[in-house]
Amino acid sequence: MSAIWSVYILPCVCAFLACVGFTLVFNIHGVGKLICGVGGALGWLIYLLAGSTIFAAFLASAAIGVFSEAMARLRRCPVTGYLLVALLPLVPGGGIYYAMRYCVSGDTQNFLDTLLHTFGMAAALAVGAMMTSSLFRAAYPHLFRPKSPRNPPGKGR
Amino acid sequence: MDYDKLLNIAVELGCRLMSSGAEIYRVEESARRFLQAYGLRSPEVFAIPNCVIVSITTPEGHPITRMRRIASHGTDIELLEQCNALCRRLCFDTPPVEEAQAMLSALTRTPKYAPWKVLMGYGMAPAFFSPLFGGSISDSVSALIGGLAVGACLLYGGRLIGYNHFFRTTICSAVAALASLLLVHMGLGQNIDTVTISVLMVLVPGVALTNSMREIMASDIISGLIRAADSILTGAAIAIGTAVGLFISQMF
User: Fold this and answer.
1) Which of A14, A141, B63, B116 is most buried, with most CB under 10 Å away?
2) Cβ atoms < 10 Å from Cβ of B187
3) Beta carbons within 10 angstroms of residue B127's beta carbon
4) Torsions phi, psi of B111, nearest 5?
5) Which residues of chain B neighbour A25 with C-beta distances below 8 Å?
6) B196 and A84 in contact by Cβ < 8 A?
7) Given an 8 Å threshold on Cβ–Cβ distance, is B21 in contact with A80?
8) B48 CB burial (10 A radius; 0-12, 13-18, 19+)
9) Parallel/antiparallel/unpaired status of strands B51-57 and B63-69
10) Cβ <8 Å between B204 and A93
């Protein structure tokens, strides 16, 4: 039980809070903060469960893509903000740093390895989130038929 | 109808959307839909990340074009959401042009976080990233301090280090590397790699990377390539800055 707590739950809570920190930087208010945090935690949970590989990053970003699109539809808001913030924990900052360390110390083999791995992570993130986004957008009209043919105007604000 | 004013509103709307960090297709589609809602046949809108061009032809057959250049900008999701809602409302209600202009001008008063709250965000994010990279509580505290240092550089160092994005990222990552080295040497942090990476996460080009793929998926290839180049350059700036930071620390 304590293993589950320290391996899965605590990191997800941290990812949630880190994403909430980023919402302050990107000027996101209200419920949006919560959505971004939950998206980040969800992505990190799937990344951990799938084994922290490049493919895991792909799965995680796919999940984030679906979650953000669904939330954006629910709130009638642009999806941009939710997607940007929720993907941030997965962006390979460590990869850039280690690649630089190897490059400076002249360890070409490790440098190239790390660099390619970093590019792989970035590509997996981008492709995962965007593919599911596009699929969701294509499937959405068939899954839930809109009640009126024309979009009602944005409420309130 | 006053088509000059209408064109001005459309360009202004596109400009606001772009400077709040919207994707190209959103900018183009919003301006086009807005103009179509006011009865124009085939308005043409073209946008790349720092320029919006809108061209319309009045019913008398007189073509008018306006171009607006957009300075480099950050991301402001609140402004983006409000612009989007306003565009929807304008397209649906089509109020008189003067009223639409007034509604657009009112958008400048969007709520913003106080600078100290943004600074807290810059500190909070690295502090909670460090456990994700295997850091302990003391690493979190050092990452918090490092993040605050980088955030202060980004928020208040504008005049000192200039507004060039590449140079600013380089300086900030050098500050990040130096701050984490200093904190670890003072005995607060334990693992120097973890602390540095956590602090660097606030500079990492996640936004540019995500946006570039969104543009390419929406088949705005030019803008996608521009943003992809931006994210690679930012990554290079982070690497150079951190290397400089490590180099300086080795001299002592």
Assistant:
1) A14
2) 9
3) 26
4) -65, 140
5) 118, 121-122, 125, 202
6) no
7) yes
8) middle
9) antiparallel
10) yes
Provide the number of structural domains found in chain A: 1
pLDDT tens-place string over residues A34-54: 999 999 999 999 999 998 889
Strand, helix or coil at B13? helix
| Amino acid making up residue A65 | G
Q: Using a CB–CB cutoff of 8 Å, tell me whether B38 touches chain A.
A: no
| Domain annotation covers residue A83 | yes
In a domain, A19, yes or no: yes
CB A32 within 8 A of CB A81: yes
Is B92's CB within 8 Å of A29's CB?
Answer: no
What is the residue range of A19's domain? 2-91+128-143
B80-104 average pLDDT score = 89
pLDDT digits (tens, 9 = 90+) for A71-121: 988 888 888 888 889 988 888 888 888 888 898 888 999 999 999 999 898
Sheet strand arrangement including B51-57: B44-48, B51-57, B63-69
| Backbone dihedral angles phi then psi of residue A137, each to the nearest 5 degrees | -65, -35
φ/ψ (deg, to 5) at B105: -65, -30
Q: Which chain A residues touch B23 with a CB distance below 8 Å?
A: 80
The residues spanned by each domain of chain B are: 3-109, 115-251
Q: Which helix (H) or strand (E) holds B177?
A: helix B165-185
State mean pLDDT over B227-251: 88
Residue A119 lies in a domain: no
Residue type, B156: Y
Nearest residue to B76 via CA among B115, B19, B155, B13:
B19
User: What ipTM score was computed for the predicted complex, to two decimals?
Assistant: 0.85
Distance from CA of A97 to the nearest CA of B (A): 6
Q: Which residues of B55-65 are buried (b: 16+ CB within 10 A; e: fewer)?
A: bbbeeeeeeee
In-domain check, residue A135 = yes
Backbone angles phi, psi at B57, to 5 degrees: -120, 120
Does B73 reach chain A within 8 Å, measured CB to CB? no
Q: How far is A23 from chain B (nearest CA, A)?
A: 7
